[in-house]
């Protein structure tokens, strides 16, 4: 029986509850990150022994999982739209194991049935390739590889899955649904198990000790920290992410109102941090009197390369989701 090691790792938390009290937030997060780091290192050593490479778990737009014996692994590249399956078993057993992994991927809601074309899968089975790998245990193994392109429109297929949740919280917190969808698209490509090495979790890549604490404090009046189990739940993750966007938008609405300027500022704040964006405003590098286009250009001139790329892509994705939802620009 195959057990997905990554799923087991992701679901581990330092508390059974969803929160910790104000006095234990920092220590709880310290314990959580230390435990997580130790588990990553243990997993790295286990995989490198056989595969002679470090598992790329920190790619938030990929999902990677290994069988319990590390004989097989699956990688779903949500950005490129490719599923790769590799196994040290023979070709026949590789095909059998592939079926189990595909079933598990759909059961865990990592893929929709519409993203996998049966004809494409059958063609991939006929084109299994092989290679050899020498593990760090000095054993040479033959690895069989299957590469399956996801169906055209796979991103929108996943977006449709989460659209009811997005629309629910968009209405509750008065945030444009296209902004929420665009942030999810940029943050995780709709990978519900996305987890970065710095600790950002889930669809909207929530940092529990920062955005997570701020949102739960706003909603409950107590300084609480969400667990990984809480944030890997799509409904809760989108709730926290949407509420955080609302908090960011509110920071700028007193000056810019509810226009596109505010959206650009909130988008950069989501990636770069609101304090840095506020400093840019206070030092007059972003001007309150600027038009939306001017604010966009001013932000691109101020923010680091990663954030400028983030702003461009979220803006582009919003236009795509407006067409998808048939929302007037």
For the largest beta-sheet, the strand count, sense and barrel status come to:
5 strands, antiparallel
Q: How many structural domains can be distinguished in the coordinates?
A: 2
Radius of gyration: 22 Å
Order of helices and strands: HHEEEHHEEHHHHHHHHH
Index terms:
2 domains; 5-stranded antiparallel sheet; Lysozyme; 329 residues; disordered N terminus
Topology of this structure?
Elements (H helix, E strand, L loop, with lengths): L4 H6 L14 H27 L10 E5 L5 E6 L4 E6 L3 H17 L10 H9 L2 E6 L5 E10 L4 H20 L3 H12 L19 H13 L7 H4 L2 H23 L3 H13 L1 H9 L9 H11 L2 H21 L4
Antiparallel strand pairs: 1-2, 2-3, 3-5, 4-5
What's this entry about, in short?
The chain is an alpha+beta fold and 329 residues long.
Describe this structure in words.
By secondary structure, the protein is of the alpha+beta class. The chain has two domains: 5-152, no CATH class; 155-325, Lysozyme (Orthogonal Bundle), CATH 1.10.530.10. It contains 13 helices and five strands. Strands 1-2-3-5-4 form a five-stranded antiparallel sheet. The longest helix is centred in the N-terminal third of the chain and has 27 residues, at 25-51. The protein is elongated and about 65 Å long. The relative contact order is 0.11. Residues 1-17 and 20-33 have low confidence and may be disordered.
């Amino acid at each position: 029986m195959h057990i997905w090691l990554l799923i087991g790792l992701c679901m581990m938390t330092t508390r059974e509850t969803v929160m910790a009290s104000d006095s234990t937030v920092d220590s709880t997060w310290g314990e959580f990150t230390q435990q997580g780091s130790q588990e990553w290192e243990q997993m790295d050593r286990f995989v490198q022994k056989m595969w002679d490479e470090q598992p790329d778990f920190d790619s938030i737009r990929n999902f990677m999982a290994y069988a319990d014996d590390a004989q097989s692994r699956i990688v779903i590249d949500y950005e490129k739209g490719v599923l790769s399956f590799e196994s040290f078993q023979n070709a026949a057993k590789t095909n059998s194991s592939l079926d189990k992994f595909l079933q598990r991927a759909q059961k865990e809601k990592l893929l929709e049935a519409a993203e996998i074309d049966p004809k494409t899968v059958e063609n991939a089975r006929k084109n299994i390739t092989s290679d050899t790998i020498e593990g760090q245990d000095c054993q040479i193994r033959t690895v069989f590889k299957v590469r399956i392109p996801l169906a055209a429109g796979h991103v929108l297929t996943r977006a449709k899955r989460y659209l009811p949740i997005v629309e629910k919280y968009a209405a509750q917190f008065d945030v444009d649904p296209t902004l929420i969808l665009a942030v999810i698209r940029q943050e995780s490509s709709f990978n519900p198990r996305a987890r970065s090495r710095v600790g950002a979790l889930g669809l909207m890549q929530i940092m529990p000790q920062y955005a997570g604490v701020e949102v739960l404090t706003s909603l409950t009046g107590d300084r609480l920290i969400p667990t990984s189990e809480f944030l890997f739940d799509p409904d809760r993750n989108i709730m926290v992410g949407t509420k955080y966007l609302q908090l960011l938008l509110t920071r700028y609405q007193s000056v810019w109102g509810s226009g596109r300027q505010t959206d650009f500022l909130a988008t950069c704040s989501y990636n770069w941090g609101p304090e840095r964006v506020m400093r840019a405003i206070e030092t007059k590098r972003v001007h309150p009197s600027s038009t939306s286009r001017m604010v966009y250009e001013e932000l691109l001139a101020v923010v680091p390369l990663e954030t400028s790329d983030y702003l461009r892509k979220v803006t582009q994705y919003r236009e795509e989701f407006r067409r998808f939802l048939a929302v007037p620009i």
